[in-house]
Amino acid sequence: MRGFYIGRFQPYHDGHHHMVEEIADQVDELVLGIGSAGDSHSRRNPFTAGERVMMVTKSVAEFDIPTYVVPIEDLERNSVWVSHVQSMSPAFDVAFSNNPLVIRLFEEAGVEVRQSPMFHREVLEGTELRERMIDGGDWESLVPDPAAAVIRECGGDKRIQQVTDSDGATHTGR
Ligand SMILES: Nc1ncnc2c1ncn2[C@@H]1O[C@H](COP(=O)(O)OP(=O)(O)OP(=O)(O)O)[C@@H](O)[C@H]1O
Ligand SMILES: NC(=O)c1ccc[n+]([C@@H]2O[C@H](COP(=O)(O)O)[C@@H](O)[C@H]2O)c1
């Protein structure tokens, strides 16, 4: 059985990693969708699809499961989004998500969806991590080591600080 799990992964953090670990127990192969693939260099979406591909690929290498990482751009039309995903991804039998819109769209398209409990959501949330990067706080302890290395390599914390200086007036950061 092949599973599919999509997120923006801005950045990929220990909550995502915990979810992947649980999914790996339920499927033989995994497709990880890099959502909003065209977005980068903003406060909400600082990292490029390629940077996120590296964060995810290097982090999941510790799990013993064949994994395909597929960037997927957003569409204007939610009603055809599942077809768009299916057109870009290896075929899958079950989707994993805790996002209500994603769950609804897959269920309407007849795809089985499995949810999992949120893992330490009080800190393991992309928004919280990005705020810590902007404020110079500790974000490194909340992401897998390989993801932290990718963020350091691309100067991610400096980038998000810099783009926040320029777009902070118009973006709330959520
Ligand atoms: N701590 C967590 N435990 C379990 N699942 C999580 C956790 N954080 C996010 N997820 C799930 O992972 C998927 C991808 O989430 P996403 O990339 O939007 O991360 P996020 O932490 O919610 O980020 P943001 O604050 O940027 O929206 C979603 O289904 C989301 O519900
Ligand atoms: N119409 C669309 O393009 C559409 C619909 C639902 C989800 N998505 C994407 O799927 C991803 C879902 O991941 P999150 O759970 O991280 O929000 C996001 O990148 C989101 O933009 C896109």
Automatic annotation (TrEMBL):
Main location as per UniProt: cytoplasm
Domain of life: Archaea
First-tier enzyme category under EC: transferase
Residue ranges annotated for the Cytidyltransferase-like domain, each copy included: 4-132
This protein's record includes keyword Cytoplasm: yes
Catalytic activity field: beta-nicotinamide D-ribonucleotide + ATP + H(+) = diphosphate + NAD(+)
Keyword set, alphabetical order: ATP-binding, Cytoplasm, NAD, Nucleotide-binding, Nucleotidyltransferase, Pyridine nucleotide biosynthesis, Transferase
Pfam families: CTP_transf_like
Compartments, record wording: Cytoplasm
Enzyme nomenclature, EC number: 2.7.7.1
Keyword DNA repair assigned: no
Single GO molecular function: nicotinamide-nucleotide adenylyltransferase activity
Protein name in the entry: Nicotinamide-nucleotide adenylyltransferase
Source organism of this protein record: Halohasta litchfieldiae
